[in-house]
Amino acid sequence: MPHAITGSARKRPLFINLIGTTALALAVSLATPGLAQDNRAGDPTPAPPEGPAGAAGATIPRLVTFSGIVDPQMMQLNQSPAGSTGKARLRLNGAADFLPLPGAAGRQAQDNHRDTDASRIKVGFKIAPVPLNLDGKDPDLVGLGSYWVNAVSDCNFCHTAGGPPNYNFAAGFNPYFAQPKKTDPTTYLAGGTDFGPALPLGFYEPGYGNYVGPDIISRNPTPDKTGMPEGGHTFEQFKQIFRTGVDLDHLHPTCITPFPVPTPANCIPPPVDGSLLQVMPWPNFQDMTDHDIRAIYEYLSAIPCIAGPPSHSPLHNDCGDDQAVGADDVSEAPHGTRR
């Protein structure tokens, strides 16, 4: 049975003190205005003005919390007495005060965050497997986006147009064969990986017999002739996909009826919601900050367009008059119906 946090700090278990100390280490200064920051969008916002402790209408500086570390509903912030150093203290469920957090520590936390982004940007440019067009783009966002796409999420594992035996790796550079690692730029993020049906036979509603719907095929997120990624989607549309999983191409609607044939064409039987992307891990991506989603979008705008299969295929990407990287090679690769 869980134990309530009561009594003095001396009586609290060690791990409770460690949690509180970690929370403080991750908080921006409670005593320095202007350091508050929105945790989701990443946009700086001014801290509320401070008033003398105990004064009518005095406001408390905003506490920055980090998702999954500190529950703001469990915290109380106590101002220092008037005439003191101005440092603030944190209470956790009525427990004794923790040590004060000086403003310098808050500033250091922000500096560390910027340093982390800078290192990710550097890694992102180092590992980008294709030439990048930085014209009119924010290089920092492009580098950070490359880090998320290539180092963390490895989007190319699902969105490659390559097949066996090397899939997304260049011939002779497959690390699974104990070879040096190199991505095949001619199939990079061109789409076409076949994941099979959304669900195996036996998991759909009765009446559909052996019908399991179309195979789920990964899309082509490279930019088209407009320079916008994923077939010309705007950033707001791209963010909507990340946040909700909506399939803006409407390639596999939910079946309305199984008789006389599953309708409409290319539909997925219930309980699957065909209006949503069925393989993309958008339930995880939806928790990313707007800043990181923007970085991914900026990076995908900077990579070369790959045309993919011929224009009659939904996987085709119209690159316009620009030379598409590996267009001929990718067009010859087998593809299923885009879903």
Provide a short characterization of the protein structure.
It is built from 9 helices and 2 strands.
Task: List the SSEs and their pairings.
Elements: H1 14-25, E1 75-78, E2 89-92, H2 103-127, H3 139-152, H4 156-159, H5 229-232, H6 235-244, H7 282-285, H8 290-302, H9 327-331
Antiparallel strand pairs: 1-2
Helix pairs in contact: 2-3, 3-8, 6-8
Give your account of this protein's structure:
The chain has a two-stranded antiparallel sheet with strand order 1-2. The chain has helices spanning 14-25, 103-127, 139-152, 156-159, 229-232, 235-244, 282-285, 290-302, 327-331, and strands spanning 75-78, 89-92. The protein folds into two domains: 1-101, no CATH class; 115-339, no CATH class. The longest helix is centred in the middle third of the chain and has 25 residues, at 103-127. With 339 residues, the protein is mainly α.
Order of helices and strands: HEEHHHHHHHH
By secondary-structure content and strand pairing, the structural class works out as mainly alpha
* Number of domain modules: 2
* Strand line-up in the sheet with most strands: 1-2
Beta-strand portion reads under 5%
List unreliable stretches of 5+ residues: 1-101, 323-339
Can you count the beta strands? Answer: 2
User: Helix share of residues?
Assistant: 25-40%
List keywords for this structure.
single chain, 339 residues, mainly alpha, 2 domains, two-stranded antiparallel sheet, 2 strands, 2% strand, globular, disordered N terminus, disordered C terminus
